[in-house]
Amino acid sequence: MTILVVTGTGTEIGKTVVTAAVAAAARGRRVAVLKPAQTGLAPGEPGDAAEVARLAGGHVTPVELARFPEPLAPATAARRAGMAPVRPHEVAEAAEKLATEHDLVLVEGAGGLLVRFDDEGGTLADAARLLSAPVLVVAPAGLGTLNATALTAEALRARGLECLGVVVGSMPDRPDLASRCNIEDLPVAAGAPLLGAVPAGAGTLAGADFAAGAAGWLAPELGGTWTVPSL
Question: Which amino acids does the record list as binding ATP (predicted)?
Answer without folding.
Answer: 12-17, 48, 108-111, 169-170
